[in-house]
Design a protein that fits this description.
alpha/beta, Nucleotidyltransferase, domain 5, seven-stranded mixed sheet, five-stranded mixed sheet, 13 helices
Length: 388
């Protein structure tokens, strides 16, 4: 069981519900004064999901499933102070926390920036917060932290990139952001605590390695450049192709042999190690490489080299003035991989390894920062970036 550490030297106070939706699962957790009391993963059957024409129609079903599960575990909804949700696909935004409002609901429910199950988290969290407020009013309960509000933290399309980092090869193809903002920002806070450094004085390149891989540049508390987790601007990953040569890709698209969706699956989901070996489990790739099987040895070298190139490229944005390189995500549990990457990039800056990713814990930590009044709350505007 995980526990949230002190917030600015004080023990966390309050009850937080955390919601994280995936394509076929709904994960949620309940924290009381920093300690996790409940963590669940609801798995939705293909039959249950097939009743909905679109993933965004599932918010009511998934909301009810969480509420039923909470009541079944004896957790009173009225005791929940805030709801923290995984950030969905919406722009314009920067890193930080946002209260879920009408503009955000409109963009997410309409899939304006992309159709993905992560969009459901904020809708479900807002639904539950409304239910909590209704119950409190009905029972005459005066909440200790005020009205229950749903928030998202560090959404994946948060954009703080330098203007020159946005420029693509032609105006129609600007560079955009989509990266592991939630985990990398949480890891950055952890590194700052461990090292005794301050965000405003620290520049770090953070590489998140999971099914997808993103490399982001954190300077002065902002993410001023990043690769793109889904858009072909990034390294080879366990299941994604990464950057592809455009001419062969164009020929493949117009060959008549593949549908649009088949091409997309080749790039995302069936690329990388999946395309070569039929697995996205890097533990298998590492083991086969250690056994000396040639094709696995070469792929391992390519995987490490791709990531190292992107790390060094991010360092170039700040003229090589990097204080730390941080490796994180599930793949970072492999010492073979992290050692190989470190060997190629430690001349830029010291390499630190923080393996794993716990999105629920990261969201809970953001929630306690909110309850402690230690962060700025952003209000989302669907048309303009407003820093308020």
């Amino acid at each position: 069981m995980s526990k949230i550490g002190n917030i600015n030297g004080k023990a966390p106070k309050g009850n937080i519900l955390v919601v994280n939706t995936g394509s076929i699962t709904t994960k949620f957790a309940y924290y009381c004064d920093g300690e996790i009391l409940l963590e669940e993963k609801l798995e939705h059957s293909v039959e249950a999901l097939s009743k909905f024409a679109d993933v965004m129609d599932q918010d009511g079903m998934r909301t009810a499933a969480i509420l039923d599960a909470l009541r079944g575990r004896g957790i009173r909804l009225e005791d929940i102070d805030i709801v923290m949700c995984r950030g969905g696909l919406f722009t314009p935004c920067i890193t930080g926390v946002y209260n879920v409002n009408a503009d955000m609901r409109e963009v997410l429910s309409g899939s304006r920036e992309g159709n993905h199950a992560c969009n459901l988290s904020a809708l479900i969290g807002d639904n539950i917060a409304g239910e909590i407020n209704t119950l409190r009013e009905k029972e005459g309960i005066k909440p200790r932290f005020g009205k229950c509000v749903a928030y998202v933290a560090d959404p994946p399309m948060a954009d703080e990139m330098l203007p020159e980092c946005h420029v693509g090869g032609i105006p129609e193809f600007p560079r955009r952001t989509l990266f592991h903002a939630l985990n990398t920002r949480a890891i950055m806070r952890r590194f700052l605590r461990d090292s005794g450094r301050k965000a405003e004085d620290t520049t770090a390149v953070i590489c998140h390695m999971g099914g997808g891989v993103t490399i982001s540049l954190h300077r002065g508390g902002r993410v001023i450049d990043t690769s793109h987790g889904l858009g072909g601007d990034g390294p080879i990953t366990p299941e994604r192709a990464g950057c592809c040569p455009p001419y062969p890709l164009i020929d493949m698209c117009f060959s008549g042999q593949y549908t649009k969706q088949e091409i997309k699956r080749k790039l995302i989901g069936q690329g990388g190690a999946v395309a070569y070996f039929g697995t996205n489990d890097m533990r298998v790739v590492v083991q086969k490489a250690k056994e000396g099987i040639p094709e696995y040895v070469v792929f391992m070298k390519a995987f490490v080299l791709n990531i190292a190139k992107y790390i060094v490229a991010q360092a170039a944005v700040v003229d090589g003035k990097v204080d730390a390189i941080i490796l994180t995500g599930g793949v970072a549990y492999s010492k073979d991989i992290t050692d190989a990457i470190a060997k190629k990039v430690d001349w830029v800056a010291p390499v630190h390894v923080y393996p794993g990713e716990n999105e629920l814990e990261s969201l809970a930590e953001n929630g306690y920062i909110i309850l402690a009044g230690e962060t700025k709350i952003h209000t989302y505007n669907k048309d303009h970036l407003i820093e308020d």
